[in-house]
Design brief:
The protein is of the alpha+beta class. Helices cover about 15% and strands about 30% of the residues. The chain contains 6 helices and 19 strands. The strands form 4 sheets. The chain has a 9-stranded antiparallel beta sheet with strand order 13-19-11-12-18-16-17-15-14. A hairpin with a 2-residue loop joins strand 11 and strand 12.
């Protein structure tokens, strides 16, 4: 009887031990944290003020926020067996990984659902992206390739919601504008001026506003420092005045180099917010002025630069005033022509 009992106990133990082991093996895995807590999606634009018809360069970036690798797959797409190599950029299919294989949500005042119609379903298996701990991956391209409506003037709001909408960048606003140029007619000839909307948009707006008011018509080029710069735009024709309404501008210092033809707002020494109506044009390379004044235009074209150099070579008195008065007869805002645009 004792033997039977021992055999029964042993068989019970053999049965129980595997049961406990199986329970441990089948224990549910700890669920992963939401993707939005582990990865950040970012949209970046080279410029937020863009000429109509030009490229709209946007960078799509993913950042791993954790100390662990993160694997990213495009929902609803056939996955490639091999992960994307670490040296690669973000595959385009991952950009178009939003709901129903959309990429950007693009809205404008005239078309609130501009981006909803752009769909790019993968035709081949899509590689998985494995983000290294605290790693970053991205892709930069001209989005007008898929959103040609962005060639047209307007204000657009872009949002990227990849991986079925699990991530979201938040809105990025860009303004596409029809660039204009200024034609400056002087007693010594005509100069064409490219306006640097992307570098100093508020200063450009101020200048165009004054041109529309005919503020600059018949103003003297009251100061010429040969080999350096010329100065104009003073309502008193002596360098002491500003706009009639007293408006001044916040500075928009930028990376435009001061060289032959660079146009910038004049300032009262020590007051970067004193820009109003007076502007100067460089007659040579002036590196010490880079980033110290708001450059908002460039004289473009060989004929225009020849006129500028003639003005810059006139005889002046001890106060740097031209002995023979030189006036700006008028300034006109026009559409760009075939004149080559200067590199901003």
């Amino acid at each position: 009887m004792k033997g039977v009992i021992n055999l029964f106990a042993l068989s019970w133990l053999v049965f129980v031990i595997p049961t406990v082991t199986m329970a441990e093996d089948n224990e549910p895995a700890t669920p992963e944290a939401p993707l939005a807590t582990r990865v950040r999606a970012v949209l970046r634009a080279d410029q937020t003020t863009i000429p109509a018809g030009g490229p709209v360069m946007i960078e799509f970036v993913l950042q791993n926020l954790t100390s662990e690798p993160v694997e990213l797959k495009v929902p609803g797409a056939l996955a490639s067996k091999e992960p994307s190599d670490y040296g690669m950029g973000l595959p385009l299919e991952h950009v178009f990984s939003g709901v129903r294989f959309r990429a950007l949500e693009v809205t404008s005042e005239l078309n609130p659902q501009l981006g909803d119609r752009v769909v790019r379903k993968p035709q081949y298996p899509v590689p998985m992206v494995k983000l290294a701990p605290f790693g970053t991956i991205g892709l930069r391209f001209d989005v007008t390739r898929f959103y040609p409506a962005l060639h047209q003037a307007g204000i657009y709001v872009l949002n990227w919601r990849p991986y079925g909408g699990e991530l979201e960048t938040g809105p990025l606003s860009i303004q596409v504008i029809s660039y204009k140029e200024a034609v400056i007619d002087t007693d010594m000839g005509r100069m064409r001026m490219q306006l640097l909307y992307d570098k100093a948009p508020k200063t450009v707006d101020n200048f165009i506003e004054l041109v529309d008011q005919r503020f600059y018509n018949n103003r003297l080029i009251h100061t010429v420092v040969p080999g350096n710069f010329l100065l104009t735009g003073c309502p008193n024709d002596n360098g002491t005045g500003k706009r009639k309404d007293g408006k001044t501008l916040e500075p928009e210092f930028n990376d435009t180099p001061f060289e032959l033809g660079t146009v910038a707002m004049a300032l009262i020494e020590g007051d970067p917010k004193s820009g109003s109506s007076q502007f100067f044009i460089s007659l040579t390379r002036l590196p010490s002025w880079d980033g110290q004044y708001t450059a908002f235009g460039k004289i473009v074209g060989p004929e225009s630069l020849a006129v500028l150099q003639r003005i810059g070579s006139v005889s002046v008195d001890e106060n740097q005033r031209p002995r023979q008065p030189i006036k700006i007869r008028s300034i006109t805002i026009v559409s760009p022509t075939s004149v080559a645009r200067a590199n901003p």
